[in-house]
Amino acid sequence: MSQANAQALSPQSAAAAPPRQRRQTSDRAIAWLFITPTIVLLVVMNIFPLFYSLYLSFNDYSVIGSEPPKWVALDNYEKILTSERQRYWHNFTVTGRYALLSVGLQLILGFGLAMLLREKFRGSGLITTLILIPMMLSPVVVGLFWKLIFDPSKGFFNYLIYTNPRGGAEWLSDPTLGLWSIVIVDVWMWSPFVMLLCLSGLSAIPDYLYEAAAIDRASAWFQFRRITLPQVMPLLLIAVLFRTIEAFKAFDVVMGLTGGGPGDTTETVAVRLYSEAFLGKFRTGESSALAYIVLIIIIAISNLYIRALNRAREG
Amino acid sequence: MATIELINVEKKFGDVHAVKPMNLTVRDGEFVVLLGPSGCGKTTTLRMISGLEAVTGGQILLNGRDVTWERPSDRDIAFVFQFFALYSHMTARENIAFPLQAQGERREVVRQRVEDVSRLLRMEHVLDVRPGALSGGDQQRVALARALVRHPAAFLMDEPLGALDADFRETMRAEIKRLHIDQHATTVYVTHDQIEAMAMGDRIVVMSDADVQQVGTPAEVYHDPANLFVARFIGSPGMNLVPGRYVRGVLHLAEGATYKVPDAWAPSLDAATRGDGDLILGFRPEAATVGVDSAIPATVYATDLHGGYTMLHLELGNNTIIHARTTREAKYAINTPVRFDLDPAMVRFFDPATEAAIIPEVRA
Ligand SMILES: Nc1ncnc2c1ncn2[C@@H]1O[C@H](COP(=O)(O)OP(=O)(O)OP(=O)(O)O)[C@@H](O)[C@H]1O
Ligand SMILES: [Mg+2]
Q: ipTM score here?
């Protein structure tokens, strides 16, 4: 290793003394040695499943069945997009509504918190850390204890917001409140993440811009609109990108809280996918097709955001 | 248009003075340069005038109005920052329009004024570029345009040419001077470059160690420095300073050399030294003339040709090197003994204890 380094550093001296034929590993070999395990893992864990599931999405197949995959071409996709589209469409609208609500609220709350914590004051470090705690918890744990918090008889959520003094709202079993309760938990858990990104964006804005703006006689609101907002916009968009992708995959918290219920009012695409793939019929082929549709949608949305991001950066 | 008055203005960071109590009156339409080495408090002074920094003592008057505790936006002052401080996410045009839009000017007015000012600075071709893609000179122009566009009462400029290449500085220097003459706007201009200060200022405020050393026209600070610091700092090279002992009209320099002080100076020097004491003789390189039967002996230490003239470095003994300006044609070999005389109107004297210049009782 050290010899290889020495050679790399001083090619002249190596050329001056004719190289003796000795067994030594070249830089290239060492590089390969480091990379190979990663590549093997990547292929086994990621790339193979990716393409195998793509293959399965064109087959009629169930992992618990005894039959081998049977090629059906686009039948699975057709089923999802035509004959069974009503319920799938419902899953997508639930997911979309959920994504819109939770990402929107997270942005407002996260950005607001970041603006408040932007100025350093006594204990602001501690407060920031405390606010970040929800983000670090396991989603399953979060789902479980929020289930208790939402509980109409034992939980304190209703008590906090004073709904209906006689018997509070049934958050998790009410068809309209069900989605809201998931949104509330997601906002509680992930606003800190948006706040963290915004804080780093805000702290990157140099003070002299505000000094210049003060000299230019800009009001606080004008400074916010014309300096603060555009300067954090790239990070804000990154937050939106991350949170939207996450929202489209919303699964763990939903399962922990409502399991998709009541009925299928909170059944997100990911929850549906799970029930298709692993509950009851184990419809592997069809669920692979659904997974690919979700993947395509996520890629499309990400692309839109990234384009917006580049525009925000370059103007 | 405005006058700016500083009355005992001071700034302390903790126990350390960044600016010691300072008095200065900038007249309407005047171009005043704050000159001094790095860290002497020039930026701090400017920031206090603009309101970006709160004073820790004293008063600031703008047009006679006490603005000491007013916000920057209430002072109607434009500031050109040391490193431009352009809005990086806006184009040059948006940067320049910003102060107008902040005041809620109408769209057509904004467009017209931005156009006018960019024509004035000859920068129409860069209006749609962002600062990051602009050259230093063009960033400088954007910064100036943003300051000019609002027609403020006064301009504060913090080393606006500091970030530019040497040859481009000369061009921009002339441009700023020209702008000042056209607009006749009261300007306080900071620099640590004494050539820039001499070239641009109506008056120069020489600062050092958080304190004002001298306030005067370029000619005053050049010919009549108030103390040794100003004498050394102004001019390149600075004033020649030769220590000696003054005894009744004659200054005894190192190694037996003597210099008979001009008659006009004798009474004030007698008074300052009570007839016998240490003094420092100061003169500019152009005050010395080398001649065959001149008074003061020296040896040639080195010579540099500066295009139009030759700078002689002469050793006086005691390792004192002085600089003398001679004609381009003059040629002297190294180590040649020479003699030189001083123009009696151009010699000055300093008290080595206080470092202050000795003021002649009656100027000849
Ligand atoms: N915010 C601050 N806190 C503490 N000390 C400061 C602060 N700002 C400036 N100083 C100190 O005040 C002194 C004067 O600083 P100032 O920036 O005014 O110098 P300057 O003359 O503009 O120098 P330069 O030519 O390097 O720009 C310096 O010693 C500096 O360290
Ligand atoms: Mg400075």
A: 0.82
